[in-house]
Amino acid sequence: MNYKNKVVIVVSPGNSGGGAIHDYLLSRNDFISPFQGEEFRLITDPYGINNLEKKLFRDFTLNNSSEAFHQYEKYCLNLQNLRSSKNNNLIYGKYFYKLSKNYLNNISQISYKGIPQFKSISLDYKKNLLFRLKKKFLGYKNHEHGNYEMKIPVSRKKFDNETKKYLFSIFKSNCKNFKNKNIILDQATSFWKPEIVNNYFDNLKIIIVTRDPRSVFYSMKLRGSYAYPGYSLEKFIRWYDELFKKKKILQKRKPKNVINIKFENFFIDNSCKLKLEKFLKVPSLTSKNFNFNFTKNNIYKAKKNLSKYELNCIERKLKEYLQW
User: Fold this and answer.
1) Confidence of residue 3 (pLDDT cuts 50, 70, 90)
2) For residue 18, how many other CB atoms are within 10 A of its CB?
3) Are 187 and 11 in contact (CB under 8 A)?
4) What phi and psi values does residue 302 have, to the nearest 5 degrees?
5) DSSP code, position 121
6) Rounded CA gap, 194 and 295, in Å?
7) What pTM did the predictor assign?
8) How would you classify the pairing of strands 182-186 and 149-153?
9) Could you tell me whether strands 31-32 and 108-113 are parallel, antiparallel, or unpaired per DSSP bridges?
């Protein structure tokens, strides 16, 4: 395998139909998912690769750098046990943590034992007392306070190169054959700043999916979504409006490798599908493994299942975002 495999990322702000676009592409015989069709948030999660890059370079201090290394390893330790809801297999594969440890070693230039103040004050009383006793009676030195390590990263160029190799090593460990396949990833970049992943893939296409706010609210309300305010119409309206205001501020220009897709249009207008295939430079196919009719029937469920009050409220306060 080489880094020239086409990588396609589908991203949306939540309950916006990105998963359906991802599933359509995955149903084709020219796409493959290393993660069994599950979301891949390793780059954008709070302790993910983007945070690591930010703390190591844009906001570098010795403490920021050391803690970023520490938090990323801790995050990967927890992530290694995450299982697919579809088949109960490990999403990131059995070698994920080992690959992650190797990656952290490759992006660390200097490493040594230490315990900065911000870390020592976070330790509980028993641990601090135990260390003081070890110092007094066993001759322990200050730098031997636990297993914490201070770390200075490699150059930014080497970081990008090692991150690229690391990501593809994870993909490769989870797929038997990449030959003639495009790699499809769900939620692998930021909806607000999709360009943050450009340095990690040589042949990258990004699909940004949006959906009518009435349908988004209905989906959140129906699912009882964990991370979204579908339980409150007022909070949802403020939430949706603020998300898209922030997108306008953060994304000042549209990168050439990004396409915007309106969820509803994709499934009712074949020209939208053809436009996407042209953008991705893939042949026009009708996948027998994806049920277009099922998705079409779900597009306008909000019309029937939301109350008139809910519909009118969203239509009035979020009118600039309506898509049907």
Assistant:
1) low
2) 25
3) yes
4) -60, -30
5) T
6) 26
7) 0.91
8) unpaired
9) unpaired
Give the three-class secondary structure for 120.
Answer: helix
Q: At 259, phi and psi to the nearest 5?
A: -125, 140
In this structure, what token pair is assigned to residue 180? 């003639």
Residues in the chain, overall count: 324
Specify the amino acid at residue 213.
P
Q: Which amino acid is at 34?
A: P
| pLDDT tens digits for range 243-299 | 999 998 887 677 889 999 999 999 998 899 999 999 999 998 777 888 888 888 889
- What does the block give as tokens for 311? 């519909």
What is the per-residue pLDDT across 144-176, written as a single tens digit (0 to 9) for each?
766 789 999 999 999 999 999 999 999 999 988
What gap in Å lies between CA 113 and CA 251, rounded to an integer? 40
> Contact at 8 Å (CB) between 63 and 114?
no
Which residues fall within 8 angstroms of residue 96, CB to CB, at 6 or more apart?
76, 79, 80, 90, 170, 173
Question: Nearest Cα to 54, choosing from 40, 68, 41?
Answer: 68
Query: What's the token pair of residue 258?
Result: 């990004």
Q: What is the C-alpha to C-alpha distance for residues 170 and 50, in angstroms, rounded to an integer?
A: 17
Q: Which domains does the chain have, with CATH numbers?
A: 1-34+182-324 (3.40.50.300), 42-174 (no CATH)
